[in-house]
Specification:
DNA polymerase, domain 1, 58% helix, 4% strand, 15 helices, 3-stranded antiparallel beta sheet, single chain, 2 domains, mainly alpha
Length: 304
């Protein structure tokens, strides 16, 4: 492969990452994953004494062979996607003449169906917070809003007071790729948020109003809540509800989508509410719904 110019590898990586940020608008976590994958790939090439712009097919095959024993199939697939995108970028920028990764295949992955809660389990979880206590008012609002909207945990902790409109009944959020979406809320979530905003948040706000800023959900010290804080809340209430499954914020997001489809919602509407850029990502929930129907049929039909 001929090279048009000598580019230091760090400069190449910086330029690629900048393109992902500016032109493609990818989420921060996605960009960090690509950066991590390529740094590891460059380290491998250094051990072989090969520059990233001088590799051949054998170098790529050796890398895959090494990583296959170290990484889970999904992580390996993401590694290969990172490499393919990187070399596609180099060709498009005229920094190399041909793409050594053009024939690099991505292994097909087993489609893991997400864990969800049944409607009864979800109801039991929502009943756990003690709404006579300030902390319980907050936690009830968190759980109701999460189930009503299917927000990601990062979207939830990033919500500000200006992101919710209780009068109209919607929440506005910025999701992956800095894409804005507006999601409706039901009356249960609106009522719980009203209770938290009138008799919960003001108490937290007194603790440290300067650090609370405009954020919707605050911890007991008056600071914006963290991902870890949300995880602990949900885990504790799941235990109290007697749910034996592993329950995370994403479990509730999965349950939100699956219950909508089970209730007759169309796939395109669910895609918009979840903020999926590709409808194929949303289609996994149709498989979940079908699996649930099979379970119900086998359990309750007199001749399963």
């Amino acid at each position: 492969m001929s090279v048009t110019k000598d580019y230091p590898e760090n400069q190449l990586l910086d330029q690629f990452i900048n393109q992902l940020k500016v032109e493609r608008g990818l989420a921060t976590n996605t960009i960090l994953a690509y950066n991590h994958d390529l740094v590891n790939f460059f380290d491998f090439l250094k051990r072989r004494g090969v520059s990233p712009i001088q590799i051949n097919q054998q170098d790529l095959l050796s890398y895959i062979g090494e990583k296959r024993s170290q990484l889970a199939p999904r992580s390996l697939a993401r590694n290969l996607v990172s490499i393919r995108m990187f070399y596609r970028f180099l060709v498009s920028e005229g920094k190399i003449d041909s793409n050594p990764a053009r024939l690099l295949g991505i292994p097909k992955l087993y489609q893991h169906l997400p864990d969800i809660l049944s409607r009864d389990e979800m109801e039991a979880l929502l009943l756990q917070p003690d709404t006579t206590a300030i902390m319980g008012k907050r936690d009830k609002a968190i759980l109701e809003l999460l189930y009503a909207t299917g927000l990601r945990v990062t979207e939830l902790i990033g919500l500000k007071m200006t992101n919710i409109n209780l009068k109209v009944g919607y929440v506005r959020t910025i999701g992956k790729g800095s894409k804005e979406r507006i999601i409706p809320m039901g009356t249960k979530a609106i009522d719980s948020l009203n209770g938290y905003l009138t008799r919960g948040r003001p108490s937290f706000l007194k603790k440290d109003p300067a650090k609370a800023g405009p954020y919707l959900f605050l911890n007991s010290r008056g600071k914006p809540m963290t991902r870890q804080g949300f995880w602990k809340i949900i885990k504790n209430y799941a235990l109290k509800a007697g749910i034996t499954k592993t329950v995370t914020p994403h479990t509730i997001r999965h349950s939100f989508a699956t219950h909508l489809l089970e209730g007759g919602a169309d796939l395109r509407s669910v895609q918009i509410m979840l903020g999926h850029s590709d409808i194929s990502t949303t289609q996994i929930y149709t498989h979940v719904a079908r699996e649930r129907l099979k379970e119900i049929h086998e359990k309750y039909h007199p001749r399963p």
